Amino acid sequence: MGLSDLIRLLEANPVYRARYVHVRETGPEPAQYGDLDTPLIPALAEYLDQHGIRLYAHQCEAINLVRNGKNVILTTATASGKTLAFNLPVLECLAAEPGARALYLYPTKALANDQILSLEQMAAYTGIDVNPAIYDGDTPQSKRSAIREHARVVLSNPHEVHHMLSWHAKWQPFFANLEFIVIDEAHRYRGVFGSHIAFVIRRILRLCRYYGSDPRFILSTATLANPCDFAHALTGHDFALVDSDGSPRGKHSFVLYNPFYNGISERSLHQETKDLLVSCVKENLQTLCFTGSRKMAELISVWARDDAKRISQHLADTISVYRAGYLPEERRAIERQLKDGSLKGVVSTNALELGIDVGSLDAVIISGYPGTMMSTRQQAGRAGRKGKESLALLVAQANPLDQYFMQHPDQFFSAPHEHAVIDTSNPYIVSGHLLCAAAELPLKEETDRGFFGNQISDLLTELGADDLLRKTARGWVYTGRGRASEAVRSMASREKPSG
Amino acid sequence: MSALVSPPRIGALWQQRIQAMKEYEIVREGNVFSSGFSDSVVFTSEYDRARARLAELVDRYAGTAFDNLFPGQEIENDGGTCFVLEHRNPVSVPSVDIDRFKKDLMNDLTLVLGVGPATRRRLNARGYYTLENLLEHPGLRNRAQKVLAGLHGDDPSAIMDLAGRRHSKSHATVLGAACLVAPEDLVFLDIETLGLFSRPIILFGIGMIEHGQLVVRQYLLRDVTEEQAALIATADHLVGERKALVTFNGKAFDLPYVTDRLAYYGLECPGRIPHFDVLHFSRRRWRNQLPSLRLTNLEQAILNIPRHDDIPGQMVPEFYETYLRSGNAGPLVPVVEHNRQDVISLALLFFCLLEESYGTL
Predict the structure, then answer these.
(1) Are residues B150 and B62 in the same domain?
(2) What is the distance between the alpha carbons of residues A294 and A279, in angstroms, rounded to a whole number?
């Protein structure tokens, strides 16, 4: 039913057949469960029992490593249970040590808002004192003081933390007892943006050292070619890699679809996408459609609804659009409707590429190659409920790269994972964070060299010569006229964390 | 691969970017900003006058030694050396009616939890006038006992906390607690900084009453290396069980700022002492009568003190920076004067308000 019918339609129907270039099938993979070296504390074991959860191999591996004091990077696919893999060891630690704290970093506020729900739920069920709280630009002033004092898990984003470090004296109990820093969707922190984040993390660690703590890291990323190197560049520490995914996968068909099969096009990419979407929805498949722009997302959903209306109004109502510009309440409503099945087709921009919890779906349509294999795989990875069949369709645009993939499917499917690159030696980036660090605590060349690299001597002299820093007995003090954290604003410009 | 040499001008690039971030806006006259106490506005005329004054000072004092401009003393403590200027001002300390204050406290039944104005009227009607009377009230006896115990030691902190909670932080009773503080134990504080936050404090103004005079001690940083010592010297003034702090907007600015700089250097903060924020009391008293409650406006309107050639507080950083860069102490002159007058006016305003409420008649 449903999916196989659709695939048969694609193969047989004369309209679709010409455009259907290639299919690559993977799976099904059975679940691979694992064992923990020592059992979970009763409260958590019961939580898993009650929810019918059995831990997969990669979750157990991660938990075992974390318990042994290692930093861990998890690169298993979306919806493989990574959240549980880090929540469990963190909660265990919070239960065992009454003062312990944890910091969870997300690239967007929307994701933080989403993830706090699972923490609250676990805390409520197990009775462990977690008191999770989001601390970001949206947090009202009146709540901030209480969060600093009492929240044991603080969820935030790098932009907020960058500013929050100026006020570290108010966060003393938090930093002094920080046991974990959890970074979700860490692959987003690459390039220039990632290099900045790498220094924000080093400034956090510098404060931790000052207050006497030594937190462990748990990173969750998409599949990368260089996971351990990347993690090392981001944090300055060594990591253990957990990459073999034990979660079950149903049969997954990845179809390459080329509307420009004869070198010309009868209709535009967007029309073709719309047709595919309507076909999927007609077959009762929950479908997510990714497009390159907000405008196209809106248009495709409007056209799809018009088409669907010819069949029934009800069908038309099951199609919706989802994009970053919507209010949080609107987005929550759409996510809920996807989860409970009242929405069948959602057209989205790449905003939804992030791990927001809409569960898994039956089919994903990717309208135009998104630019990186990482994005493609993340988007395609949305298709596949536990054990059930799923479908991903890449619809090619009329540009050389997309067409090349259509002509050479092997190249597409064997393309290596990207490297995530961070450069911690760019003097423009390092110097900005030196200024911020000096404004947080007096900088000492010998002791802070480990965080900022060997350029520190030259840069300090340079910055001192321009009266931005002054050398005192305690170290280099920031004396610039503006606030250092405001001057180093690349956080804000590059990726707005408003989600 | 050899270490990257830092590109020349990297410091200059940052300096450029930072200079472009102003912490105040220069606006035309006539733009009335009534959004409370927003200090981030400087009128064009003020700004131009100040810039002109800066240029003139640099000219006039080029080549003048620091010590000739500022005859002060060098002091030493655990943080190193720093520099202090002393100035004596005549001041008339009002005599306060402690008995009247205590009587007011005793008669204030609303200090008891659960007793509001209406309940108080009813209690009065039934013959309960003082807190001691309430000890005979079956329902309120225990709570009244607690309040009396708190009032018993004549501890200004306890009284301010209680009155602040039950009434408001700017209530006359909170101010009245100053009656219980000896004038010699009052510490008047005003600081000048390099910005709104997370930059060095360059001038600490401390006023104390000694032998009937207001002695203003100003710890002026000859260099940023002296900040630690100046912080320690200032913090030392705040140590002592009987001391009380008086500031203007110090609850929101001066005290948190000092605390933060102490934390920056890893220094201990002095214990909490009673803190009278004259801005809060001024607001309560003159809110509906004066368009602006800035210290300079209150000075003029209430104390009749005009300032000549004063520079706006927001421009202090640029004056100080000019001194740091050039070594010419001229720009510091108005900064020191501005701060000194701030401390003096703060004290005068404080005594004025206190006398109004609890001066002996």
Answers:
(1) no
(2) 22
Say if pTM beats, i.e. exceeds, 0.95. Answer: no
Tell me whether residue B2 is in a domain.
Answer: no
Rounded CA-CA distance A390/A249 in Å is 9
> What ranges do the domains of chain A cover?
3-29+249-413, 42-242, 427-487
- Final residue in a domain of this structure, among B147, B180, B213: B180
Taking CB atoms and an 8 Å limit, are A470 and B225 in contact across chains?
yes
Q: How far apart are CA B324 and CA B87, in angstroms?
A: 24
Is the fold of A3-29+249-413 the same as that of A42-242? yes
Residues of chain A with pLDDT under 50: 491-499
Mutate to test the interface with A, among B1, B6, B262, B314 (most CBs of A within 10 A): B6
Average pLDDT of chain B, as a whole number:
89
Nearest to A169 among B80, B225, B260 (CB): B260
**Quick one: CATH architecture of A3-29+249-413?**
3-Layer(aba) Sandwich (3.40)
CB within 8 Å: B10 and A487: no
Domain boundaries, position B70: 9-94+181-358
Instruction: Determine the Cα–Cα distance for residues A54 and B140; give it in Å rounded to an integer.
Output: 59
Q: How many domains does chain B fold into?
A: 2
Residues A399-457 have pLDDT tens digits of: 899 999 999 999 999 988 888 899 999 999 999 999 999 999 999 999 999 999 999 99
Provide the 10 A C-beta neighbour count for residue A193: 18
Separation between Cα atoms, residue B312 and residue B295, nearest integer Å: 11
Kindly state the greatest CA–CA separation across chain A.
81
Name residues 2-41 of chain B within 8 A of A (Cβ).
3-8, 10-15, 17-19, 21, 23
Q: Which of A203, A426, A462, A470 to mutate to test the interface with B (most CBs of B within 10 A)?
A: A462
pLDDT at A374: 86
A42-242: which CATH architecture? 3-Layer(aba) Sandwich (3.40)
Largest CA distance in chain B: 91
Say if residue B45 is in the same domain as residue B16.
yes
- Considering the domain boundaries, does residue B1 fall inside one? no
- The larger pLDDT score, comparing residue B9 to residue A355, is at B9
In a domain, B3, yes or no: no
Between B344 and A498, the higher pLDDT residue: B344
**For residues B80-93, average pLDDT:** 94
B331: confidence class by pLDDT, cuts 50, 70, 90 = very high
pLDDT in tens, B202-212: 999 999 999 99
Task: Note whether B239 and B349 are same-domain residues.
Answer: yes
Q: Which residues of A61-81 are buried (b: 16+ CB within 10 A; e: fewer)?
A: bbbbbbeeebbbbbbbbbbbb
Chain B (77-96) residues lying within 8 Å, Cβ to Cβ, of chain A? 80
